[in-house]
Design goal:
15% strand; 15 strands; six-stranded mixed sheet
Length: 520
């Protein structure tokens, strides 16, 4: 393996070789896993200057050299560890770790990567710049989830709630081992307000079903329990539009920060330990390190902002409801305790449908909002299993046979119509209901005469499709209208002035007068 001197010498010649072959600076930087500024610096050096540069490096000792082995082992074990998380690990494992600039940590981690050839590729995410808000004005809330490693090598999914004050970037994070419900989210709000020692004037949210049932062109329909909580704590709420992450970009960055700086490669022991580690991380790193954008420590700014927050007074809410509402998925199923359970076809109704779920003697009982049982399943002990009742696939609102018979009676010859519809059913069994509805609706538009002619034509030409049936009916209807249309010559009427002249009687001569003239 090459030493540090040989590695940098090789890098110098490799950069010049790639540049001669026509590669751009950014391409070279990605290829050799180096910063583009380093590539430019090496390209500007000749061989003598580079040799002098290497000799100067050999005489200089790095400030963090004593921690090189620790960083190397961590990078070998977790090659894509960011410098920010490595900084936190160093402070966590070495209580006497010196206070250094984050850029120093970044440079040292990059040095170790280059020294031992440990590459890293990390994607970036950009946001549009927004105006800074005054103290105490706003906080932003979001949720995240992450698969953590356990001590036995297995994976454990955890869910976290985070709130950040927009002015100071002071953060709060808490974890659960199950998806957030309205009750858990309310409880997390209470913990955050206690942690902040106050309540901001406004909180920004995503359009999450934990908080909101529906958004009807700006008219927000909140979950009843959350609406009651907002009323008691008296803070304004703002829900972002869909696909608009920039509106709450501060908390979006916090979610990424929690995943990459705190959770990445952390071992899960239990929930209490994880939340205790979270509070330690908040006090050690998240709220104590200068923020990358504002370049100030969130804790220091929070000390200024806390006086502008509304006083926090705990509220007493019943956080243990008798039942929890579950949302029916578009495929007529629900997700319950990491398993999927089917419901009868047609249960789901747009835009959303809620049901009540209870357990009794090993059965999962699904009821409507009136607490009337819809169906029940035997509780699955296997995580991720789909429990499906095949009887639920059938639509029992009206049998297909009855629909075919009802539609056939609308035609002049019901038996021919019934045979024709049965043939459509054989060719399109999954869509027969839709096919029948299309043909039935066509009766109102075209009438019996056109529909009977269409049936005869489609049978003779073996056309077994409702859309084609309607196209034929439309063509026949147009031909009938053309035949009934009578072309009469256009009658032009005289203007009023001319019509008066037409009523005048012209002067007539006497024939005797002409005879007298001829004879004389």
């Amino acid at each position: 393996m090459m030493n540090r001197y040989e590695n940098k010498l090789f890098m110098y010649y490799e950069i010049h070789r790639l540049h001669r072959e026509g590669m751009s600076i950014s391409q070279i930087a990605r290829y050799i896993v180096a910063d583009w500024r380093t590539v430019i610096k090496y390209l500007l050096m000749d061989e003598r200057e580079h040799e002098a540069y290497l000799n100067s490096l050999e005489k200089r000792k790095k400030e963090l050299s004593d921690y090189e082995i620790f960083v190397k082992e961590k990078l070998i074990q977790y090659p894509d560890t960011p410098a920010a998380q490595m900084h936190d690990w160093l402070k966590e494992c070495y209580p006497d770790f010196p206070k250094v600039n984050p850029k120093t940590i970044y440079n040292f981690v990059m040095h170790v990567r280059q020294e031992y050839n440990i590459p890293k590729v990390s994607p970036a995410r950009e946001y549009f710049i927004v105006e800074e808000l005054p103290k105490g004005k706003q906080a932003q809330v979001d949720f995240g989830e992450y698969n953590m490693r356990c001590t036995d090598g297995k994976r454990k999914k955890v869910y976290f709630f985070t709130m950040v004050l927009s002015y100071s970037r002071f953060k709060y994070v808490c974890f659960t081992d199950c998806p957030f419900t309205s009750e858990l989210a309310i409880n997390a709000h209470e913990k955050a307000f206690k942690f902040f020692d106050g309540i901001p004037n406004e909180i920004v949210y995503d359009q999450d079903k934990v908080f909101m049932n529906n958004e009807n062109h700006g008219d927000l329909i909140l979950v009843e329990r959350f609406q009651s909580y907002v009323t008691q704590q008296r803070f304004a709420i703002y829900f972002c539009r869909k696909a608009d992450p920039e509106t709450k970009g501060k908390v979006e960055n916090v979610v990424k920060y929690v995943k990459q700086n705190f959770l990445y490669n952390r071992i899960y022991y239990d929930l209490d330990t994880l939340n205790a580690e979270t509070l330690a991380w908040l006090g050690r790193t998240a709220n104590q390190m200068p923020h990358g954008t504002i370049k100030q420590v969130p804790y220091d700014l929070w000390m200024e902002e806390r006086s502008k927050l509304a006083p926090y007074v705990p509220v007493s809410l019943l956080l243990d409801p008798e039942y929890i509402l579950y949302t029916v998925r578009p495929d007529n199923s629900i997700s319950y305790k990491s398993c999927f359970y089917s419901l009868p076809q047609g249960t789901y109704r747009k835009p959303y449908t809620n049901v009540i779920v209870n357990e009794d003697n090993g059965f999962v009982i699904i009821c409507n909002l009136d607490n009337k049982e819809i169906c029940r399943h035997k509780r699955s002990t296997i995580v991720g299993k789909k429990v499906i009742n095949t009887d639920h696939k059938r639509d029992k609102s009206k049998r297909i046979k009855e629909l075919i018979n009802d539609l056939a009676k609308c035609f002049e010859n019901p038996s021919d119509a019934s045979l024709y519809l049965q043939e459509i059913k054989m060719q399109k069994p999954r869509y027969i209901r839709d096919q029948i509805i299309l043909i039935k609706d066509a009766f109102e538009k075209y009438g019996s005469n056109t529909m009977n002619q269409t049936l005869s034509y489609c049978k003779d030409n073996q056309i077994y499709s409702a859309t084609d049936f309607i196209a034929v009916a439309d063509n026949i209807e147009n031909k009938i209208k053309q035949k009934l249309k009578v072309h009469l010559p256009e009658i032009k009427t005289l203007p009023e002035s001319v019509s008066k002249l037409a009523s005048l009687k012209p002067f007539s001569s006497n024939i005797d007068d002409y005879q007298d003239i001829i004879l004389n």
